[in-house]
Design brief:
By secondary structure, the chain is α/β, with parallel strands linked by helices. Helix content is about 25%, strand content about 30%. It has a 7-stranded mixed beta sheet, with helices on both faces. Strands 1, 2, 8, 9 and 10 form a 5-stranded antiparallel beta sheet that branches. Strand 4, helix 4 and strand 5 form a beta-alpha-beta unit. Helix 1 runs parallel beside helix 4. The protein starts with 8 loop residues before the first helix and ends with a helix.
């Protein structure tokens, strides 16, 4: 019986780029914006091609690092070059092939909620490129904040970026047009296409800063904002409050 092939347009685009197709490009579909191109080259950027928030996050890393949603490994490889021990995870099998081919020493195919039981503790969980989005929904955010308590070493930190996308819902006068009885406006549904292959749709969360702070503090974390850019993207550090460390 043949095994069903998992649709993996992101992985196929990254592999195509790695193998010489420098014009490889994904098409991003969402329920909040027109489709737009995403060049595979973006996943292979060097340190000086990264946004300032990402460079700041790399400077703030410490200890053993879990790079969640690692893509083609630009952050993992930079951290390895600085002497860090890094585990890179991505839900895309093709991306993990790229991570391994590019020299990431520890790479595994998991989504954020599928880390094996008994997983090592991490001093830093790194979630870049709007990495909070990996949790999918507000319910996923609650789940992740609890799960991370068992992944973080004492004194460990989560370094993550996210964005406020309320600007997508502004009318011509700049007023927000949001259904307050509907889902949170930052819960977005995406799918990706590469060539003729379109992957399954997936949820992605864009959490505005005040909402993220509320959820994180409710879950027992200290919240420190480390920077913000012109696109309303921000970098946040979450660390467990002492009583929560004592209880884990």
């Amino acid at each position: 019986m043949s095994q069903k092939t998992v649709s993996d347009p992101v992985g196929q685009a990254l592999l195509a780029y790695l193998h010489g197709n420098k014009k490889a490009e994904l098409t991003v579909h969402s329920n909040v914006a027109d489709e737009e191109p995403l060049p595979a080259s973006y996943f292979f950027r060097t340190l000086w091609e990264m946004p300032e928030l990402e460079r700041t996050a790399l400077e703030e890393c410490r200890g053993r690092v879990l790079d969640a949603g690692a893509g083609a490994g630009c952050h993992s490889l930079e951290l390895q070059s600085r002497g860090f021990q890094v585990k890179a995870i991505d839900a895309s099998p093709g991306a993990v092939q790229v991570l391994q081919a590019r020299g990431v020493q520890e790479a595994a195919c998991h989504n954020l909620f599928e880390l094996p039981a008994g997983e090592q503790h991490y001093d830093t969980i790194l979630m870049l490129m709007n990495g909070i989005g990996l949790v999918g929904t507000l319910e996923g955010l609650e789940k992740f904040l609890q799960q991370a308590k068992h992944l973080l070493a004492p004194g460990g930190q989560i370094l993550a970026t996210s964005s406020d996308i309320s600007y997508l819902y502004e009318d011509e006068e700049g007023a927000l047009v949001i259904n307050l009885n509907g889902p949170y406006y930052g819960e977005v549904e995406y799918s990706m296409t590469f060539g003729e292959e379109t992957g399954a749709s997936f949820d992605w969360l864009f959490a505005d800063a005040s909402l993220l702070q509320d959820y994180a503090e409710e879950a027992g974390y200290e919240v420190e904002f480390l920077g913000e850019d012109e696109q309303q993207q921000y970098l946040v550090r979450l660390t467990l409050k002492q009583q929560n460390i004592d209880n884990n």
